[in-house]
Amino acid sequence: MPWDAVSLNDGTMMPSIAFGTWKIGNGQGPIDQVEQALSVGFEHVDTAQGYRNEAEAGMALKESGLARDEVFVTTKFSGMGTINSSIHGSLKNLGLSYVDLYLIHHPYLALPYIPWAWERMEKVKAEGLTKTIGVSNFEVKHLTVLLAHAKVKPVVNQILLHPYVYEKQFPILEYCKANDIVVEAYSCLTPLTQNPGGAVDKPVNEIAARLRAKPEQVLIAWAKAKGAVVVTTSSKKERLEGYLAAGDLQLTEQDILDIDVAGAAGAPGLAAKTMLRRVVGVALIAA
């Protein structure tokens, strides 16, 4: 399946689809889910300090029997302590001596002085605690400040990306492309999971019927067509297999345009829901 690894701006190779542990909770469930994802072919696990399930992800990695270099591991600094103390805590939770990618989870965590925070990230990389570093949820204004002072350029920016926010996120996509920063897309299935009945349903369902695929596969293929690395999740084995199979879908330029246009029309209540998620997210990070 054509989920070819992408080359980051420092030469690191990263699998282009990841299994994410956001919202999957704690305990045996997430251990089983991560292990299941690895068993069906996922080679990239994305977690975070703030998800509070790094230990479960680490247990699944151990129980999978896979060699360390067979799995790309991403985690994030979520503001629970300093950047230095947090990476050591994450590595302890994961049972690893290094992660492949370490991200600042949100620009609020780097304020009031982004360059100062980024210097700490560069130090983590220099100490070999992570192979490479990046950011998450950064807007153009944050990236501009960071790049003006960075000695090491961020390799990725992980952002919310689905058809209903594509128009809003487009400047970030263009800025990242111009500066050789890979975009990672999370929550790309939102039109199905959070906003069913919106304008995107019609083109997605029609494309799915024509390609004999499932709507979620079309949305994943859409994100891939935008050049993004996809971060997704499911507790169901057949859905995970479907996500991997979505790498084979070939959307036409018209397919992509139809989804873009429908996404620009918006979904009922999306703006309010997006604002609520941001408020809740900031509150969780502050807590």
UniProtKB/TrEMBL annotation:
The active site is at 51 (proton donor). Pfam families: Aldo_ket_red (PF00248). Coiled coil: none annotated. Keywords: NADP, Oxidoreductase. Residues 17-260 form the NADP-dependent oxidoreductase domain. Substrate binds at residue 105. The record marks 76 as: Lowers pKa of active site Tyr. InterPro entries: AKR, AKR3C2/3, Aldo/ket_reductase_CS, NAD(P)_OxRdtase_dom_sf, NADP_OxRdtase_dom. GO terms for molecular function: oxidoreductase activity, acting on NAD(P)H as acceptor; oxidoreductase activity, acting on the CH-OH group of donors, NAD or NADP as acceptor. Belongs to the aldo/keto reductase family. This is Aldo/keto reductase. It comes from Rickenella mellea.
